[in-house]
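Q: How do we represent a protein-ligand complex in a form that can be generated token by token?
A: Start from the inputs.
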Amino acid sequence: MLDLTGKNALVTGIANNRSIAWGIAQQLHQAGANLGITFLPDDKGRNEKKVAELVEPLHPTVFLPLDVQNDAQVAQTFETIQAQWGRLDILIHCLAFASKEGLEGDFSRVSRPVFTQALEISAYSLIALAAGAKPLMTAGGSIVTLTYLGGVRVVPNYNVMGIAKAALEMNVRYLAAEMGPHNIRVNAISAGPIRTLASSAIGGIYDMIHHVEQVAPLRRTVTQMEVGNAAAFLCSDLASGITGQVLYVDAGYEIMGM
Ligand code: NAD
Ligand code: IMJ
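Then emit the structure tokens for the protein with IMJ bound:
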């Protein structure tokens, strides 16, 4: 049985009810985990209000602002967890960002600042959060991040995010090697395309989703809940022998060559 009772789980990346992180948070809650939720703060506090209302039914015992570009907020997150929970068991990294110019046009035109920001937010942040989590995962732990096929194959317009996901997937392997002796497992889920804030803003996304529906072995896309189920599995003792892996939750699309 998938049981996360008594486990403390920190979930990043919830923006709204379409977020993949929202699907993951619901499945972790259903499996009995105690939740901490972070939100990306904005000037008017709108995000905080929206995310607070959304997650209220899951009764999070920690609720914190976290912009991964802000070192003080990263440090504060783990100080609060240390003080409130004493121990962390699960970390969900479910966030990415590239400036729009980095997601269209000729890849070779990507500027240094666009490249640097995409890599910092989407890939470096996993290292920063894993480093903060490590000393709190005193009974072992599980870290899960979200990646996409565009990090290993060329997907139109994914451009700079493809490089960020390639770096993220390699981060998973180096972190898994470092943290394995502490019984901390680090894995990624490579999700197929899902309609979220991050994907709906992309030109041609509906055609790409339609293509997956025609070609993937299951002839459909996947849901946030299916990704959430895979994340709950990876965080549970059922996955105690799995680390450093990229698990495709994509209706089988990745195996197809034609
Ligand atoms: P989303 O827009 O709901 O989530 C992205 C999250 O990133 C938001 O909550 C946003 O607040 C957060 N974020 C951006 N910059 C941040 C920063 N500086 N600090 C902290 N948080 C920040 O979209 P989503 O599709 O749920 O994306 C979640 C993850 O899933 C991303 O890593 C994305 O690459 C990955 N993914 C998405 C798909 C898809 O098709 N939607 C497929 C595969 C992988
Ligand atoms: C993103 C771009 C191009 C093709 C894409 C995507 N496909 C999919 C996505 C086919 C599925 C969504 N995805 C996997 C992402 O990781 C998206 C990341 C992202 C999205 C935005 C949009 C708004 C913005 N910046 C972004 N940064 C990262 O301003």
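Residues 13-15, 19-21, 40, 66-69, 94-97, 121, 146-148, 191, 193-194, 196-199 surround nicotinamide-adenine-dinucleotide (ligand 1) (CB under 6 Å). The chain has a mean pLDDT of 97.
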